[in-house]
Automatic annotation (TrEMBL), chain A:
The lineage of its organism: Bacteria, Bacillati, Actinomycetota, Actinomycetes, Pseudonocardiales. It comes from the Bacteria. Pathway: Alkaloid degradation; nicotine degradation. It is an enzyme of class 1 (oxidoreductase). GO terms for molecular function: 2 iron, 2 sulfur cluster binding; anaerobic carbon-monoxide dehydrogenase activity; metal ion binding. It comes from Amycolatopsis endophytica. Its EC number is 1.2.7.4. The keyword Metal-binding applies. Keywords: 2Fe-2S, Iron, Iron-sulfur, Metal-binding, Oxidoreductase. This is Carbon-monoxide dehydrogenase small subunit. The keyword Iron-sulfur applies. Residues 1-77 form the 2Fe-2S ferredoxin-type domain.
From TrEMBL, chain C:
GO terms for molecular function: iron ion binding; oxidoreductase activity. The keyword Secreted does not apply. Residues 19-125 form the Aldehyde oxidase/xanthine dehydrogenase a/b hammerhead domain. InterPro entries: Ald_Oxase/Xan_DH_a/b (IPR000674), Ald_Oxase/Xan_DH_a/b_sf (IPR036856), Ald_Oxase/xanthine_DH-like (IPR016208), AldOxase/xan_DH_MoCoBD1 (IPR008274), AldOxase/xan_DH_MoCoBD2 (IPR046867), AldOxase/xan_DH_Mopterin-bd_sf (IPR037165). Pfam families: Ald_Xan_dh_C, MoCoBD_1, MoCoBD_2. It comes from Amycolatopsis endophytica. Keywords: Molybdenum, Oxidoreductase. This is CO/xanthine dehydrogenase Mo-binding subunit.
């Protein structure tokens, strides 16, 4: 079937199998490979993108379901001038990433989290990221990054 | 993992959806938010030939006060329920239970109708609707029918809905002034409940204590006799048949049912 | 002022936070254009005779080839004393064992075709546990005659425990866990027209992988190039490479096609090697004043179905006595095969098991004599004046301040107040019990003593390119090494490029494991930089008409010491005239012994058994710190992973050898809400065993935190009669322990 999705402001239209998952459409058809696949049970959150502004696990959405909708991936967060989104800046400043594999999904989940709760407590950040797994950081600096991006104090 | 091949069809109205599934019967599946169905299809535990996407049916996304009942559209997402002002006022327990489903990403997609129709014994919303004495409204080729929650959950992943029927609405009595409590016991935040308890007024329902959500009838009877929370909770495991699993034995689940029921009753204002 | 020791954000991060890393699945290189996709058909049963019929799959859409053992013409591959088939050859021995390889044109065709590979499994009796293996009722490899494929029997003499006022024994399970890096295993490969195989591989060691693949394929190492793209975590399970890589290289040659392979998570959880899986029996004896007089450790390693890595139990023996000076010590090890996924390194690899055993033993001993666990440890520490300390098991510890680490942690935690709060809750009968758990540890890093390569070239524009044999995959080593070189050469970090992981660029190397990278890879680059400086100094002296001895290097300029007016010579000025390169092998670095103390504070709901980790206070001393940001990050990650083992994680099998935790929905990978903020206490005790004075930090915090959290859970329940419970301390386990204790009382 023909699927058209506005990804990071650009419409991508491609003929794909009906069963195509959104994550594969983003990676293969749109050629945007920041979004990663870390599991097959909707558990890890590495594939998190924004669908119409809300975080979703793109491994558990059909490309067909996103047809006619807007998707934002990590690559769409920063401007052409290279100006970083506050969360991108904060993840670097706070060392909120190590191997980087969970990072695109973690940042997109954090964007959605702060959208709904601009000044979360540390516990709210932890709870809000329950659907995103990280094996490297022990989450401490991820929490710091989200706190930093929300303009709040960080404990290093 | 990739689902087996299927044909995708988008429904732009309830009638269109009904027509599509009527034609294909057992080979067709309605796709709501997809947060239960797609994982099963990816693991190839389910392989429908036709997927009818009812995601676009925004007319089934609502929470409305209708006299002394709340009407909730079947396509209302967990995230919507969690943040709905009408629900917060008239049935806060439902908002609270919705807030505990899955994780934020899943709650952005998953729908109450999808969760109820999936009828996973470990799911929270079926128990909530059961505790609330909800009514499920389904439409099919022969029109609309109303099914009490108590008759809806027939077994693990088993409901009376025919393949060509579509759940459209859930109705629950307003809970104004009634106490409520919800306890969900998990190892990790994102896990399914090992045991859960929903208390709405003097109704008590259990999650994952059998093949379906269960009313804790013995507890309710004790409460009706004026028992304390502790006394009533002590019979919470009566009539249950929980699964024996490596991370939760039958005895442990029965014990948890008692402890959590007491806590939920106390939250609900039973002393 | 030197940037070494200051907090510097990582040079790796810009790409990772804007476009994402380039992991093996992201590669868009020309050689892989038109590559076919690969999937292994894996056994769903633990032990069976197999026959494979691929004919139906061959007719499926897009299928390029289906290969089975019958097609392979590779020399047999030994795992320990037995042969591990490349693809199952007549018998499968664990769930997840590769049986066939399917190649298709499109990714989405793989699973469809794999389903059509018809495999008949004729079940055999299953050995699903260490205990079942030891009975010998079913033997996995009949020609071996036993399931015990390695035995290092110590000489045990109960006389060692003569004179002890207290002797106790306990068997402690160190459960099997899944390394579960967030990026699963993946590879891509293509044979070039020059007859060489290029293998892009998610690995910790391109060079070891090259050797393994070349040997497996029966070609020269020079005929294989391994390239490491970004790697999404390894944790020991990506040391070298697994048999799959050899089969892929073979299949690429046979089919004449480039191949891409990425496993699924559900495959990963059963077919990437697991870690830990030891059953350790401790016997500890001593006096009621807290002095331990004798200690015995009997290690039984579950090796899984094929004994791929046999050093784990011996490393556990080596580190058996931890931070303590015990007069008499006895150890033994055995490794058995079972119908489970093979075991190999996982963050700590042999040392966490040693620390878990001794630290539980110390708490059992403390409880038995009624002494505070902190005090018992203090009585038995190796004293600072005993270093270098030769341990009875054969290790030579370099430096340590064990009591100091413990005291710092107790102070930072407010230990006395916490004990008072615990007593108050017990007095009040609070159903939420407070538990305090200590672990004091020493570990060995760079324990392989194999050295590392380092090469530096100063480019004609004055920028620097450095090649390291280390192979980082999340540790931020590029930044750390660039900081060191910037400091040493006076070249800004953004003018320094660090390269690694391509065997054509770095032919000789060992790679990253065992927390070895900074102490060995860093020392190698230090040595190379020294050599480049000496080359440049001589050339600069000529230009300045001065003696080399009178020159100093300051901010990238060679000038005459004390005579700034005489001008200077820059790196660019020298490098544009002469090739400035040094290529070294740092081979004289011996192992170092980082140490520390951790205190965990838990709350246990005694009604449900649920454990909440409230605090963890950690002192991890690995010598001088180059980048506190990266150093703390390594500790955080270690604390999280170590706590996860104590609290939640276990790879479980039923009696038929079926894994019951084979997806990320079932395997309790820890998430953010289960962990607290970490409290770090700083301490730096240098070593003399390498050029930087540093010790490794990659695994240390994992090693300390597991027994600290484990001890805290037992401590919380001790007043209710619980003396021990095995990890993970899940709600069910805790509730069962409490129920049994109640019955016993």
């Amino acid at each position: 079937m023909k699927v058209s999705i506005e990804i990071n402001g650009t419409t991508v239209s491609e003929e794909v199998e009906d069963r195509t998952l959104l994550v594969h459409f983003v990676r293969e058809q749109a050629g945007l490979t920041a979004t990663n696949i870390g599991c097959d049970t909707t558990s890890c959150g590495a594939c998190t993108v924004l669908l119409d502004g809300e975080s979703v696990k793109s491994c558990t959405v059909l490309a067909a379901q996103a047809d006619g909708h807007a998707v934002t991936t990590l690559e769409g967060l920063h401007g052409d001038e290279g100006d970083l989104h506050p969360l991108q800046r904060a993840f670097r400043e706070e060392h909120g990433l190590q191997c980087g594999f969970c990072t695109p999904g973690m940042i997109m989940a954090s964007v959605s989290l702060l959208e709904g709760n601009p000044k979360p407590t540390r516990q709210e950040v932890r709870d809000g990221l329950e659907g995103n797994l990280c094996r490297c950081t022990g989450y401490h600096n991820i929490v710091n990054a989200v706190m930093n991006a929300s303009g709040q104090e960080v404990q290093r | 993992m990739i689902p087996a091949r299927f044909t995708y069809q988008r429904a732009s109205s309830v009638d269109e959806a009904l027509a599509a599934v009527a034609e294909h019967g057992d080979d067709a599946k309605l796709l709501a938010g997809g947060q239960s169905l797609l994982p099963l299809m990816k693991l190839r535990f389910a392989a429908p030939e036709l997927i009818v996407d009812i995601g676009p049916l925004d007319e089934l996304r609502y929470v409305r006060l209708d006299g002394d009942e709340l009407a909730v559209g079947a396509m209302t997402r967990h995230h919507d329920l969690q943040h709905d002002a009408v629900l917060a006022e008239h049935a806060p327990v439902l908002a609270q239970v919705a807030a505990s489903v899955g994780d934020p990403q899943i709650r952005h997609r998953g729908t109450i109708g999808g969760s109820l129709v999936h009828a996973d014994p470990a799911a929270d919303l079926p128990a909530a609707v059961l505790a609330l004495d909800g009514t499920l409204i389904a439409r099919g080729p022969s029109g609309e029918r109303r099914i009490p929650a108590a008759e809806f959950f027939q077994g693990p992943f088993e409901t009376p809905l025919a393949p060509e029927e579509l759940l459209t609405e859930i109705r629950v009595p307003v809970q104004d002034g009634l106490g409520w409590g919800f306890e969900k016991f998990t190892r990790r935040a994102l896990d399914w409940a090992i045991v859960g308890v929903v208390v709405a007024g003097r109704s008590v329902a259990l999650v994952n204590m059998g093949g379906t959500p269960l009313r804790a009838s013995a507890v309710e009877a004790a409460l009706a006799r004026g028992a304390s929370a502790a006394e009533a909770a002590s019979v919470a495991a009566e009539g249950t048949s929980p699964a024996d699993e490596p991370h939760a034995t039958v005895e442990y689940r029965e014990h948890l049912a008692r402890v959590l029921t007491e806590r939920a009753l106390v939250s609900a204002g039973v002393s | 002022m030197s940037i070494v020791g200051t907090r510097v954000v990582r040079i790796e991060d810009h790409q990772l936070i804007t476009r994402g890393g380039t992991y093996v699945e992201d590669l868009r290189v020309e050689a892989l254009t038109g590559a076919v996709h690969a999937m292994f058909v894996r056994s769903p049963v633990a032990h069976a005779r197999v026959t494979v019929d691929a004919s139906a799959a061959l007719d499926a859409p897009g299928v390029v080839a289906v290969y089975t053992a019958a097609d392979l013409d590779l020399a047999p591959h030994k795992a320990g004393p037995v042969v591990e088939p490349w693809l199952a050859d007549g018998v499968v021995r664990y769930v997840g064992e590769p049986v066939a390889l399917v190649l298709t044109e499109e990714r989405y065709q793989l699973a469809d075709a794999a389903e059509l590979v018809d495999v008949d499994y004729d079940p055999l009796d299953v050995v699903a546990s260490i205990d079942a293996a030891l009975t010998g009722e079913t033997v996995l490899f009949p020609d071996q005659g036993t399931n015990v494929l390695q035995a290092g029997d110590g000489e045990f003499d109960d006389a060692a425990f003569a004179g002890c006022e207290v002797v106790l024994s306990h068997t402690i399970l160190n459960q099997r866990v899944a390394p579960a890096p967030l990026e699963v295993r993946g590879a891509a490969c293509a044979w070039g027209e020059d007859g060489r195989l290029t293998l892009w591989l998610s690995t910790q060691n391109a060079q070891i992988s090259r050797a393994t693949v070349a040997k497996g394929l029966g070609v020269e190492a020079a005929d294989v190039r391994v390239v490491t793209p970004d790697v999404g975590g390894g944790f020991g399970a990506k040391i070298g490479t697994d048999p799959e890589s050899v089969v892929l290289g073979w299949a690429s040659k046979r089919s004449g096609r480039a191949i891409r392979w990425v496993e699924t998570r559900s495959e990963n959880l059963v077919s990437m090697t697991h870690g830990r899986a030891q059953q350790n029996t401790v016997t500890i004896g001593g006096r009621r004043d807290g002095t331990v007089l004798a200690f015995r450790l009997e290690v039984v390693q579950d090796a899984g179905a094929y004994p791929r890595t046999m050093f784990l139990p011996t490393l556990t023996e080596l580190m058996a006595t931890g931070v303590y000076h015990f007069p008499k010590v006895e150890t033994s090890n055995r490794a058995v095969v079972t119908n489970t996924t093979p075991i190999a390194a996982y963050r700590g690899a042999g040392r966490p098991e040693a620390t878990a055993a001794i630290e539980r033993a110390m708490d059992l001993f403390a409880a038995e004599i009624g002494m505070d666990p902190a005090e018992v440890r203090r009585v038995n520490f190796i004293r600072p004046d005993e270093f270098p300390y030769s341990s009875p098991t054969g290790a030579t510890y370099d430096t340590g301040e064990y009591a100091k680490a413990l005291d710092q942690v107790l102070e930072a935690a407010g230990y006395a107040d916490l004990r008072a709060e615990q007593a108050r809750r017990r007095e009040a009968g609070d159903p939420v019990a407070l538990g305090l758990g200590l672990a004091t540890y020493v570990e060995i890093t760079g324990g392989d003593s194999g050295g590392e390569s380092g090469k530096i070239t100063v480019n004609p524009d004055g920028s620097v390119t450095a090649w390291t044999g280390s192979s980082p995959h999340g540790q931020g080593l590029d930044s750390t090494l660039a900081m060191l070189l910037s400091d040493q050469l006076g070249v800004p970090m953004d003018r320094i490029t660090i390269r690694h992981g391509d065997t054509d660029e770095v032919p000789r190397a060992i790679g990253t494991f065992g927390s070895r990278s900074l102490q060995l890879g860093g020392s190698a680059l230090r040595q190379a930089a020294d050599q480049v400086i000496e080359q440049a100094r001589a050339l600069a002296a000529d230009r300045l008409e001065a003696s080399p001895d009178d020159l100093e290097l300051s901010e990238g300029v060679f000038g005459v010491r004390g005579a700034p007016a005489s001008g200077g010579v820059t790196w660019a000025q020298i490098a544009e005239q002469t090739d400035l390169t040094a290529d070294v092998w740092f081979g004289d670095g011996s192992p170092t012994f980082p140490f520390g103390a951790h205190l965990a504070v838990v709350e246990v709901d005694t009604l449900t058994g649920k454990v909440v980790l409230k605090r963890i206070i950690a002192c991890d001393d690995a010598g001088p710190v180059v980048n506190p940001l990266a150093f703390q990050g390594q500790r955080h990650g270690g604390l999280g992973q170590g706590a996860a083992q104590a609290l939640l994680e276990v790879m479980n099998y039923d009696a038929d050898g079926n894994p019951t935790t084979a997806t990320l929905a079932d395997y309790s990978f820890i998430s953010a809400p289960e962990l607290p903020d970490f409290e770090l206490v700083d301490s730096e005790t240098p070593t003399t065993r390498n050029l930087l004075g540093v010790k490794g930090i990659g695994e240390a915090a994992t090693i300390g935190s597991t027994p600290a959290v484990h001890n805290a859970v037992v401590d919380a329940l001790s007043h209710l009669g619980v003396r021990h419970l095995d990890m993970p301390t899940t709600p069910l386990r805790v509730w069962q322990a409490l129920t049994e204790a109640r019955k016993a009382n």
